[in-house]
Amino acid sequence: MSDKLNLVLNVWRQKGPKDAGRFVRYEVKDISTHMSFLEMLDVLNERLLAQGEEPIAFDHDCREGICGACGVVIDGSPHGPSKRTTTCQLHMRSFRSGQELTVEPWRAAAFPVLRDLVVDRSALDRIIQAGGYVGVRSGSPRDANSIPVRKEDADLAMDAAACIGCGACVAACPNASASLFTAAKISHLALLPQGQPERRERAIAMVARMDGEGFGHCTNHGECESSCPKGISVDNIARMNREFLAAAAASRRPLGAEAKDDDGGA
Amino acid sequence: MAQPTGFLSTTVGQKALMALSGLALVGFVIAHMLGNLQVFLGPEALNAYARSLRAVPALLWAARAVLLLSVVAHVSTAIRLVQRAAAARPQGYRQAHHAATTYAARTMKISGPLLALFIAYHLAHLTFPGVAMGGYIHSPTDVYANVVAGFSIPWVAGIYVVAQVLLALHLYHGIWSMLQSLGASHPRIVQPRRALAQGLALLVLAGNLSIPIGVQLGVVR
Ligand code: HEM
Ligand code: FES
């Protein structure tokens, strides 16, 4: 097998939020199979720059699969065809020479396209601002392990906390729902002792913010889990629902009163 | 989009309502099937069962009210949520790709409304006849004779068979989805959830299909 590929890319080009956008066809040649998908786009961009054209805008930062900045939809799959892989970690050997690929941004009303493949994911930040944190005693750090945590809960919390907030779950969901993201964030705190004081308010405020951002609802297709680069389980969505229902049943304030003080925008 | 201001204006609250109304309908579908299977015990058994259902009119109408409320809540919430999802992704992908979803899940929006049509047809056929469905004489007391006469007509039996397949698809995804929506994710039931949904859907499919097919094959006469 040769370690060079020739590909045809149909890439979404959009000058800005107001531009209608369109697909533009590019041929890329002699791509090393050892490159990542983003490095392949770098090569294409070098060529576009040399030709005096605008390079393709895409988000990236760590390029080692931990920051959650990157992400494009390749042939309908967020982060491409490899399981549990971010776009920056996706190797070109996952493709065949001669393949024609469609490269699109995350598509959701709550993620407006800023330019080309770059979308505004600050809606996810506002969901975190609504309650995805714990109140801590500031001052000198406490001793490690001073609060005992059941091993099982620690494991589940760690699995949920693996979410890097890339938004692939929203991109993959037929309803553009942010349920997996929100559920992972609610779960990892609900499972730990540190998350208990704000547990109820958190579940209600984060769900309300998620809805307020205009994401869709969950119909339990499971597309989110299968496209998640960290393999976050949809069991977390059931946990979020339970947390929310229990909190709404126990809440002494009318629902929505909690969310008033955090007007995150949108 | 405005921040929701009440339990039923959140998506999780609306899904809980879908799930609870769906649960009431699932319970009814199973009880209805078990009752109807008495057709295999002969005319006396089925007709006595039918009489017992109507023995206390207040109970009959209370049950009908619960079912009607469930259907109204289920359908109106479904419409609301489907509209919300459409607004959440105004522009779709040029190339769609499914990695995990099932046929049953993708067709909920179709199997649901078709079931609503079937429910209307079914009520007009056997419960509130008058809209003569196929040209036999409907007897108000002999339920057994009505079932046999109705299902002897091939196209009537055909409608029921198709509707049961749709119901099985709706139940398969619906029961699994309902457990998720109500937060039933205890480690002991996480694993068997899919199997439970599949098992119940297949049970209802087999039980309900046996009646029109039994009549067509002449097992029930
Ligand atoms: C025999 C009658 C029916 C039964 C037993 C039934 C049962 C269920 C159940 C258990 C669910 C899962 C709820 C959840 O996701 O939490 C569901 C979902 C759904 N049902 Fe039904 N249903 C019935 C009739 C209908 C009808 C008449 C419609 C017509 C519009 C409908 C439309 C839907 C839709 C669209 C969903 C998906 C909801 C969503 O998450 O967006 N169903 N059904
Ligand atoms: S660039 Fe950081 S995860 Fe891909």
Structurally, the number of domains of chain A stands at: 2
Tell me the greatest interface: A-B, 55 and 48 residues
Write the CATH homologous superfamily of chain B.
Fumarate reductase/succinate dehydrogenase, transmembrane subunit
Q: Write the CATH fold name of the largest domain in chain A.
A: Fumarate Reductase Iron-sulfur Protein, Chain B, domain 2
CATH superfamily of the largest domain in chain A: Alpha-helical ferredoxin
The bound ligands are:
protoporphyrin IX containing FE, FE2/S2 (inorganic) cluster
End-to-end Cα distance of chain B, whole Å, is 59 Å
Explain this structure to me?
The complex is a heterodimer of chains A (266) and B (221). Chain A has 266 residues and is of the alpha+beta class. Chain A folds into two domains: 4-115, Beta-grasp domain (Ubiquitin-like (UB roll), Roll); 122-136 and 147-262, Fumarate Reductase Iron-sulfur Protein, Chain B, domain 2 (Orthogonal Bundle), CATH 1.10.1060. Chain A is built from eight helices and seven strands. Chain A has a five-stranded mixed sheet. In chain A, strands 6-7 form a two-stranded antiparallel sheet. In chain A, helix 3 packs antiparallel against helix 5 and helix 6 (199-212) packs across helix 8. Mean pLDDT of chain A is 93; it is low at 258-266. Chain B has a single domain (6-94, 101-216), classed as 3 helical TM bundles of succinate and fumarate reductases. Helix content of chain B is 72%, strand content 0%. The structure holds protoporphyrin IX containing FE and FE2/S2 (inorganic) cluster (FES).
Layout of strands and helices, then pairs:
The complex is a heterodimer of chains A (266) and B (221).
Chain A (H helix, E strand, L loop, with lengths): L3 E10 L8 E11 L4 H14 L22 E2 L2 E2 L21 E5 L8 E3 L2 E2 L2 H8 L21 H11 L6 H5 L6 H12 L8 H14 L10 H5 L7 H16 L16
Parallel strand pairs in A: 1-5
Antiparallel strand pairs in A: 1-2, 3-4, 3-5, 6-7
Chain B lengths: L10 H26 L6 H11 L3 H32 L14 H4 L1 H20 L15 H10 L1 H28 L5 H4 L2 H24 L5
Helix pairs in contact in B: 1-3, 1-7, 1-9, 5-7, 6-9, 7-9
Bound molecules: protoporphyrin IX containing FE and FE2/S2 (inorganic) cluster.
FE2/S2 (inorganic) cluster binds next to loops of chain A.
